[in-house]
Amino acid sequence: MKTNRVKSMTFMGGAPIDIYDGWADVFVTLEDDDDDSKYWFEVTTPQALASHMDERNQRFLEPVYPFIIVRELTPAVIKEAIEAFIIEEEDGFWFKLYDSIPSFTIDDLNLIIDRRKKEMQAEEEED
Amino acid sequence: MRKRVTIILVPVTFLGMFFYFYRKSGKFRESIIAALLAALVLLAGPLESEAKDANAFTSQPETTRASRNRNLFNSGARNPSNGGPGKPDNSGSGGDDDKDMSQYPKVESVQETESRLDDIDKSIARMEESSDSETEQCEATEQFQVEESYKSNSELKKVTKNVHKSKRAVKNLEDVKQKLSEGADPMKIGRKPTNLGNDFYYIRKSDARILVKLDRTTGNSDVVAFALRSNTKNMETFATVVNSQCDTKIKINPKAY
Fold it and tell me: How far is CA B129 from the centre of its chain?
């Protein structure tokens, strides 16, 4: 990943009405991205998580894909948060992880788990 | 107790007073009369108080008795034909005693009570049966229609094809349809849906984004479009189609920041 700067950001599903208690779907493009790829993130606030559980009378959040948590759903804060996820030294690991996880299938996950098991077996044999 | 004391006191008083007057006057006849009067005066006090007690016990205010009768025996209203428990009989036959007694419940035999309880059980069962069928009817009528107009949209065909590859996204769609058919408020489905105006709702589910239009007059709804959350291209097409074809007040991707 060449850059840690957000070029543009678009709210899908309309801009959030309540910036302190809402969810936002955002498309992001990055500066210096050769293919002008778009990335997708879900962004929310701590208050929205609490009110979501309150509305459903839940004591925990049901399984959801990772999302970015910000204090307020303003373009400036969201951009700042996303840029914090792009760590150049790690080749944008967190940015890529949050963007990619929703496209994982159960086969992908099983593949990763099998690979990890083989790695551990190999380590044990070496010992 | 008071009666016994009176019985002892009257002769003692009579004798005492007789000896007193006889010793003083020496006249036998007059002494007897005076002693008799004294004894009568002594006897009159306790008799008067007993009469008062008796009155207090028997002649309570009419309103109090009537209200007590209502409170104790108001269940009698269930069976008015036979006078029932606690039902006052206002026929007026018989003397005063009969009239008073008629205001109290008639003694009911065990068989009569059992048959009455059976009747009550039967009517309760009938009421429960009728209320169950009414509830079923209500549930049946509370099913709303959910159309899927995205199926006939040529521009959304490719999007839909991709979404159907994801079992979780399809399950999301089915879940939303189910809730809409049950009459759920679209603003309470998924995570913080966005009201796009003109009865369009953008619903966020874990694997899909679904655009729903609600008909407020009928309660029926229409799944206008839906897209796979993990497919950026899919979502872009979804947004383009919605922005161009749907009369939403808020555009899905109005501008880039």
Answer: 20
- In chain B, what residues touch A39 (CB-CB under 8 Å)? 232
Number of C-beta neighbours around residue B225 at 10 A: 28
Q: Is residue A65 situated within a structural domain? A: yes
Determine whether the interchain pair B194/A17 forms a contact, defined as Cβ–Cβ distance below 8 Å.
yes
CA distances from A72 to A14, A22, B253 (A): 16, 9, 19
Query: Any alpha helices (H) in B82-220, and if so which ranges?
Result: 96-102, 110-141, 157-163, 167-181
Indicate the pairing of strand A38-44 with strand A68-69: parallel
- What mean pLDDT do residues A1-25 have? 84
Query: Given A38, A40, A48, which is nearest B192 (Cβ)?
Result: A48
This complex has an ipTM of 0.84
Whether residue B66 is predicted with pLDDT greater than 60 in this model: the reply is: no
Work out the angle at residue B62's Cα, subtended by the Cα atoms of residues B58 and B66, and round it to the nearest 5 degrees.
110
Q: How many structural domains compose chain A?
A: 1
Burial B165-181 (b: 16+ CB within 10 A, else e): ebebbeebbebbbebbb
The length of chain B is: 257
